[in-house]
């Protein structure tokens, strides 16, 4: 699912995914990078929902394809 928020003439793109492993996570990063490229933006947000009992909450800054992605695992 994607959310695009326009505020003060700036777009914020948020990609939301369910955690299904590292390979799926990497596809989500690539998908967000593509959306950022289409919208001529350098920064986006990836929110990952992890329903595993042993999940770890974390936030990380990822640089992929020249784009800055704030990834949050909840």
Count of discrete domains: 1
- Give the mean pLDDT: 94
Widest sheet: strand order? 1-2-3-5-4
Q: What fraction of the residues are assigned to beta strands by DSSP?
A: over 45%
Task: Indicate the percent of residues in helices.
Answer: 10-25%
Q: Using the alpha-carbon principal axes, give the shape.
A: globular
The secondary-structure element order is: EEHEEE
Taking the sheet with the most strands, its summary is: 5 strands, mixed
Helix/strand-derived class? alpha/beta
Distance between the termini: 16 Å
Radius of gyration: 12 Å
State the total count of DSSP E strands: 5
Describe, in plain words, how this protein is organized in 3D.
It is a single chain. This protein is of the alpha/beta class and 74 residues long. The chain has one domain (6-63). The protein is 23% helix and 49% strand. It contains one helix and five strands. It has a five-stranded mixed β-sheet, with helices on one face. The protein is globular. The protein starts with a strand and ends with a strand. The model has no long low-confidence stretch (mean pLDDT 94). It comes from Clostridium butyricum. This is PD-(D/E)XK nuclease superfamily protein.
